[in-house]
């Protein structure tokens, strides 16, 4: 029953993400008037990354599990489950894309801060220079994926540690499945020690996440001060500031929602192994939140930014106008051809 519900959540989130993110890309590309070309490219890139992340979720079907002094990240029902090596690479790529999404969000904060505070600095986002910012996203995604694939790859000691638990919970052998393990402590000659691999995982991945959050919080503070002061000025400035305020709110929600639903629940799971608490916990709920994460970003833009609501109403109005015209054309056609029968 649990597995069936997980499949339902994953596929529902995937199709909804594909629908809304594709609609977001279409409206951004052809029906938004007050959004700059550079920021439109960012929105389209961010939405495309969300579709990619959601697609990988379906292909990989990741599972997370906390057990005593370790955290397990593996796959049992992925599309390439017959190939352990391919599944391991895809699990690492999945984690890398997650980091890229977080890094891409911080780039949007930087751009909007430059646009509001120092418009001249936005020149560094235009044209071919945009490659540097995609490079920023790629580098931090690569770092996260590399750490996962190299330092969370289980050695014999880690596989033996989780072997009995995995067989009891999932009826599989830890040596036969694509698996990554964050195991905090090792033991040799009855002496416990902190494993070097676990320290690299924690400080490396948490360092990437902390850096992105620091950037977003600093930019968010600067944006809030600037937009608040502009809203107290002339009416013309207010019209411009309202647009900036909407995007600022959207960025805040895009930061707050995944923080509450994904990052905050996940961070304790990463640190739990170091407390070596004796428990076994299937973290299905966190995986569900990862599945709906890309969908939330597009829904926030639709709900907060008025340009998208206006574009949707305009498209609906055009459809309503075209329906009578099509009906009239059909009546004329059948009326003219009745005499030929």
Structure notes:
The chain is of the alpha+beta class. It is built from nine helices and six strands, in the order H-H-E-E-H-H-H-E-E-E-H-H-E-H-H. The chain has helices at about 1-30, 35-60, 85-115, 130-150, 155-170, 195-230, 235-270, 285-305, 305-340; strands at about 60-65, 70-75, 180-185, 185-190, 190-195, 280. It has a four-stranded antiparallel sheet, sandwiched between helices. A hairpin with a 2-residue loop joins strand 4 (about 185-190) and strand 5. Helix 6 (about 195-230) packs antiparallel against helix 7 (about 235-270) and helix 8 (about 285-305) packs across helix 9 (about 305-340). The longest helix is centred in the last third of the chain and has 37 residues, at about 235-270. InterPro entries: 7TM_GPCR_serpentine_rcpt_Str. This is Seven TM Receptor. It comes from Caenorhabditis brenneri (Nematode worm). Keywords: Membrane, Transmembrane, Transmembrane helix.
List the helices and strands and how they pair.
Blueprint: H1 2-30, H2 37-60, E1 62-67, E2 70-75, H3 84-117, H4 130-151, H5 156-170, E3 179-183, E4 185-188, E5 191-194, H6 196-230, H7 235-271, E6 280-282, H8 284-304, H9 306-338
Antiparallel strand pairs: 1-2, 1-6, 2-3, 4-5
Helix pairs in contact: 1-2, 1-8, 2-3, 2-8, 3-4, 3-6, 3-7, 4-6, 6-7, 7-8, 8-9
């Amino acid at each position: 029953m649990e597995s069936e519900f997980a499949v339902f959540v994953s596929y529902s989130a995937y199709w909804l993400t594909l629908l809304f993110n594709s609609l977001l890309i279409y409206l951004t590309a052809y029906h938004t008037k007050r959004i700059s070309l550079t920021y439109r490219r960012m929105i389209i890139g961010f939405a495309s990354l969300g579709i990619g992340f959601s697609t990988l979720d379906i292909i990989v079907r990741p599972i997370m599990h906390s057990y005593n002094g370790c955290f397990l990240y593996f796959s049992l029902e992925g599309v390439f489950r017959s190939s352990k090596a391919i599944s391991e690479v895809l699990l690492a790529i999945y984690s890398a894309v997650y980091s890229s999404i977080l890094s891409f969000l911080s780039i949007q904060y930087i751009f909007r801060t430059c646009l509001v505070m120092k418009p001249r600095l936005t020149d560094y986002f235009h044209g071919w220079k945009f490659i540097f910012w995609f490079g920023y996203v790629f580098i931090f995604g690569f770092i996260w994926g590399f750490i996962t694939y190299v330092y969370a790859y289980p050695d014999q000691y880690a596989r033996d540690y989780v072997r009995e638990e995995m067989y009891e919970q999932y009826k599989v052998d830890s040596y036969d499945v694509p698996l990554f393990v964050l195991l905090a402590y090792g033991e040799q000659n009855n002496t416990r020690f902190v494993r070097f691999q676990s320290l690299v995982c924690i400080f490396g991945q948490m360092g990437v996440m902390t850096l992105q959050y620091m950037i977003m919080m600093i930019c968010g503070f600067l944006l809030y001060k600037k937009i608040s002061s502009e809203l107290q000025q002339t009416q013309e400035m207010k019209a411009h500031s309202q647009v900036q305020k909407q995007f600022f709110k959207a960025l805040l929600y895009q930061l707050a929602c995944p923080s509450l639903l994904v990052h905050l629940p996940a961070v304790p799971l990463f640190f739990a192994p170091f407390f070596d608490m004796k428990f076994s916990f299937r973290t299905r709920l966190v995986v569900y939140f990862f599945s709906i994460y890309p969908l939330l970003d597009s829904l926030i833009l639709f709900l907060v930014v008025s340009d998208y609501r206006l574009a949707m109403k305009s498209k609906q109005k055009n459809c309503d106008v075209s329906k009578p015209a099509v009906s009239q054309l059909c009546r004329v056609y059948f009326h003219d051809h009745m005499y030929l029968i």
